[in-house]
Structure formats: C-alpha cells, structure tokens
Amino acid sequence: MMRSNAYTLTRSTPHAIIDSTKLQGVWQSIARLRAHDPTFRQVVLTDLYLGYQEARELAVVLAGNRYVTRLDLSCNKIGPSGVQCLAPALASMKMLFDLDLSDNELGDQGTFELVSQLKGHFCLHRLNLSRNFIGSAGARALSDMIAQDSPLDTFIASNNRIGGDGALALAEALAKNEHLCSLDLSKNEIDSPAAAAFAAAVGNRGKHSLVILDLSDNRIDDGGALMLVEATAINPWFSYLNLGGNRIGREGFENIAAWLDQNKEVCLVLELGRG
What we know:
Blueprint: H1 20-34, E1 42-44, H2 52-62, E2 70-72, H3 79-91, E3 98-100, H4 107-118, E4 126-128, H5 136-147, E5 154-156, H6 163-174, E6 182-184, H7 192-203, E7 212-214, H8 222-233, E8 240-242, H9 250-262, E9 269-271
Parallel strand pairs: 1-2, 2-3, 3-4, 4-5, 5-6, 6-7, 7-8, 8-9
Helix pairs in contact: 2-3, 3-4, 4-5, 5-6, 6-7, 7-8, 8-9
Protein name: Leucine-rich repeat domain-containing protein
GO molecular function, one term: small GTPase binding
Keywords: GTPase activation, Leucine-rich repeat, Repeat
C-alpha cells in the first residue's frame, strides 16, 4: 500500500523490476499530492504495475485536486476495477487538462466506468486510451461523450478493438462535435463503411472541423480511402490524413492520385504508405 509516511507497492509483480528511482518518484508524488502542493501541476506515474489497490489509494489523494493539469498513468495494470475507483476522483479534478490512461487493460467495462464520470468535465482537452482492449461497446460509450460536444480537442484510441460498428458510432458522434481537432483511431480493425461515415462527418463539419485524422493500419479499401481523401481535401480546415497500412491496392492509389491531380489547389498532408 501507499501510506503517508512509508509508501510501498503491494502488487505481486516483483518490485525488483521497478527502478528504485521510479519508486522514489512515486513516494515524492504522493507526498506532494497529499500536501496539496499548488506547484505540482504534472503527475507522471508510468510503468509501475499500479493495480486496483494502488488505484484506490491514488484516488484518495487525487480527489478534489485543484492544481494538477496533466496526469499520466500509462503502462500500468489499473484495469476496470481500478478505474472504477479512480474515475470519480478524476472527474473532481477541475483543472485536469491532459489525461493518459493508455495501456491499462481497461476493456469495455473500464471505458464505460471512466466515461460515465468524465461526461461534462469542462476542462479535459486531451485523452489517451490507446492499447486498452476497447471494443465496440466501449466505443459506443465514448461516442456518447463525444456527441455531447465535450471540450476534448485531442483523442487517442489507437491499438484497440473498436471495429466497424464501434467506428460507425464514433463517426456519428463526430458529426455532432465542434471541438475535436485531432483523432487517432489507428490499428482498430475499421472497415470501409465506417470510413465512409467518417468522410461524411468530416465533410459536413464546417468551420470547427477536425484537422488531423489517423486511420492507419485498419481495413479500409480503395473506395473507402478515396471517399476520405475527397472529404478531407475539400475541407479547408483539414490538414493531415493518415491511411497508411490499409487495404489500398494499385487501383486505389491511382484513383487517389488522379483525383489530387485534378484538384491541385488542395493543401493536405496525406500518408498512404505501408499498404
């Protein structure tokens, strides 16, 4: 357990693999949080095998914090039970701007627990949930938050299992959101029907549009890729589209090249490699 005077980690994972300098950093961080240090704005506790018990105790010292703007708990083992304990505390951190919970085995249930608390958080602008085994159910929960036009401007959910149905829900939510600027859904088994939905959302968003979209390493074919290029290229606010590592064949590349050749005024950074 982490205590006020002698902080230790109780997980069964061998502590020998955790660098002593990192452990010292944990102790110092907890002490500063307990003391409500107003200068402690960025909390980084990564790759420490923090699990359910540690999440419970961390929630106690984070609850109601008015100073922390960035919290990085990536590469731990928090899981759905741990995030259920943490989520209310995170929601109470009114100055929290940047939250990284990537690589924490949250799954759909953990994602639901997190989103149910973070809905309506007026300060959170950046959220990273990469590598969390999020499937279509978790994606639908996330889409509810995005559809409410949350203040998020950067959302990263790469390396999950969102799939076509989950991506469709996110695309529909994106069409209702006027704040999101950067979206990374790479490596999520997203197919061309979902790509078409994203194309429709991006093409109809007006001035407050998405400017960066990463759909690399998915299952988008020639037709889906062309629809995305056309939709993003004609949006004057859009700047970067990554479709590398998809199922784009020679004909798809040729069609995209021909379209761009006919629309030379387009200003777009487009990545199509690794296909």
